[in-house]
Specification:
CATH class of the largest domain: Alpha Beta
CATH superfamily of the largest domain: P-loop containing nucleotide triphosphate hydrolases
Strand order of the largest sheet: 6-7-8-3-9-10
CATH architecture of the largest domain: 3-Layer(aba) Sandwich
Structural class: alpha/beta
Strand content: 15-25%
Number of helices: 10
Number of strands: 10
CATH topology of the largest domain: Rossmann fold
Distance between the termini: 36 Å
Shape: globular
């Protein structure tokens, strides 16, 4: 579980986060949604430690980030898995070597066990036939799966995904969403996803935080989303033709 307590962040006297408090639950897919410029990316960067909040605190399973020393923060980073928007694979490395990279950097396993772990993670995401291929030789969806394999290679307690479906077709996006949900439950991770993909919200939204102009405007799950009376949320959600069609179908049923 990750708990945010009254997070504030500003840049050049402009308030970007204005007292965000919420809880990201373990074993669930926790989504951050909002318009571009709403502050959701800054929020995610604060949670993973890429930015330091001006005030407030982030609590990882009863461990307060603000009171951690350098050694404790380094250990915390070893518990974090990150899926970047563009997959961020190393072009000059094979898919297997990409997954081995964090294991070689941070794991104390033997070399043979590191290879076994990398292959296990690739098998888990359905890339058992792509060990020796390079990123340029596989599709965007396969690259995303390889990035997921790398993100879980160190068996993290917390998984962060920044726009995991960016650049993917709808069918591949659904498969990536399903994979993230399955892995979250299988490994009992606290998964936090920054997304603007309404398909993902419908598929994965076990806990949704809607950020509007730096404030937490609404929080709930995917079922409650359709029945919310929050005007700002509805303006954001129902701007999507997909959501309008999905809602019409739900009410007809």
């Amino acid at each position: 579980m990750i708990q945010l307590e009254d997070l504030h962040k500003s840049f050049e006297n402009k308030d970007v986060l204005k007292g965000i408090s919420t809880i990201f639950e373990t074993g669930k897919t926790n989504l951050i949604i909002g318009q571009s410029g709403s502050g959701k990316t800054v929020l995610l960067k604060c949670v993973v430690g890429l930015l330091e909040p001006d005030s407030g605190d982030i609590i990882y399973d009863e461990r307060r980030l603000a009171s951690m020393d350098k050694k404790e923060r380094t250990f915390l980073r070893s518990e974090l898995g990150m899926l970047f928007q563009g997959s961020a694979l190393f072009d000059s490395m094979s898919i297997q070597d990409n997954v081995l990279f964090p294991l070689r950097m941070f794991s104390e396993l033997s070399d043979s066990d590191k290879v076994k772990r990398a292959k296990y993670c690739l098998d888990r995401v359905g890339l058992n036939d792509a060990y020796s291929l390079f990123p340029a030789e596989i599709s965007g969806g396969m690259q995303k799966r390889a990035a997921i394999a790398r993100a879980i290679s160190l068996n993290p307690k917390y998984l962060f995904c920044d726009e995991p479906n960016s650049g993917l077709d709808p069918l591949t996006s659904i498969k990536i969403d399903e994979l993230i949900m399955d892995i979250t439950q299988e490994y009992e991770m606290t998964t936090v996803i920054n997304t603007h993909d309404m398909n993902s919200v419908v598929t994965m939204g076990e806990n949704i935080v809607f950020i509007h102009q730096g404030e937490k405007e609404w929080e709930g799950n995917k079922e409650e989303l359709f029945h919310s009376k929050n005007q700002k949320l509805n303006e954001f959600v129902f701007a999507s033709k997909f959501f309008q069609k999905a809602t019409d179908k739900i009410y007809k049923e």
